[in-house]
Amino acid sequence: MDVADLSPAQARERFRTGARIPTAGWCQGWTQANLIAVPKRLRYELLLFAHRNPQACPVLDVGEPGSWSTELFAGDLRTDLPGYRLYRDGRAVADLDEVVSEWRDDLVPFLIGCSFTFERALLAAGVPVRHLESGTNVPMYVTSVPCQSSGSLSGPLVVSMRPVPGELVHTAIRVSGHYPMVHGAPVHVGDPAAIGIGDLARPDYGDPVEVRAGDVPLFWACGVTPQAAVLASGVDFAIGHLPGHMAIMDVRDDDYLVT
Amino acid sequence: MDVADLSPAQARERFRTGARIPTAGWCQGWTQANLIAVPKRLRYELLLFAHRNPQACPVLDVGEPGSWSTELFAGDLRTDLPGYRLYRDGRAVADLDEVVSEWRDDLVPFLIGCSFTFERALLAAGVPVRHLESGTNVPMYVTSVPCQSSGSLSGPLVVSMRPVPGELVHTAIRVSGHYPMVHGAPVHVGDPAAIGIGDLARPDYGDPVEVRAGDVPLFWACGVTPQAAVLASGVDFAIGHLPGHMAIMDVRDDDYLVT
Question: Which stretches are transmembrane (chains A, B) (predicted)?
Fold first, then answer.
């Protein structure tokens, strides 16, 4: 069975039993989300950080302290993502397949929108998605653009990049703009240096992707941004997903379509 | 000088020196906001309540604990609104001209979008605004529609109502829909009983307004909703504005226009 045709529950079972693989292209039509779980004491600052940086951090769902499922995610947040990243004192200390023993009673999980959600719509509109063609993870970059801070939380905007043929740039902007809750239209088009990206071939997260002749790089705000803030702000404890290895939610892409 | 032509600072000075008057039509072109200030311990629940009920509770700005100004409101939140309502233990205990002695060190002020913001656009599109014609406050109603709860906070949706000539209903929907951050398009059109409103002539807040032959009542989500939640949830202490007596902000209506 093609991974595109799996149900969220089927995909989560594969991840729970060990598959560590980026989720671009999985469960077509189902919404994917970034995970960031922080101690209860930081939940207000994080929610306000998300509110102040809505294009990067659209909050799709929030769990109760210590819970490992939410209204829109019926799986187990500790095991059902294909990969996790553990943070201590502002450093990424481990990449893990599950985080059962790390999931503290005071952790509050936030599920943040992901641009994978509109890739099906891009394809349907005739816009090629290069990392789907190559079967790799989307490339992501830490930019020089600062986020609005919230209390102790600050950090740079992270973006994902998709190379789009020049004549389809307006289509890609229009189509993704119809999904404002999952990053919406690009935050930047063209010159990577203008937002502090030195080399497209060396992403900070994910895999490099081929930029073909005539392609223009399009940059979308990325839900890894809270993890960059955890790093930049020296947060003592947090759990995120491994970038590109998303939570597959029990809600459909079309629920976030605004026309 | 017509109140429509006052600057925010000029209007705030009038309110600071005692004028208690609804602000519909004041400072045309400048954004107006609802105030709800709660103890720090409730700020996460309130921010999440707002996030879960975005059409009623669009958060325009949040202050630090104990502060009485914010980035987008350069005045003094304790004195520069034309009227305040004080809540204790889930009851409205006083309407006041200023709240200097009530403003505790741990109070966190939230400024919530207000539908007055798009009234200028309605007028410009040829849609009459009846309460501006009569020089009265907009009528507001507590509905039977429950909000999404957040921790200890729950309560009913509050709406404002504007009667609109039948042939202009689609225009009013379209124009207000361009302002999603200040309640956007109506939540209901037509029959008041469908959302639990018994008698349009007896609003829960504000003044009744004439519904002329051929008018259709349009109902917009209202930023008084957090105050209804304070009442319904038995919150021990909170300060709100007197409904219709808004904070006039240092930001322009057009900053919330989405086209």
Answer: none
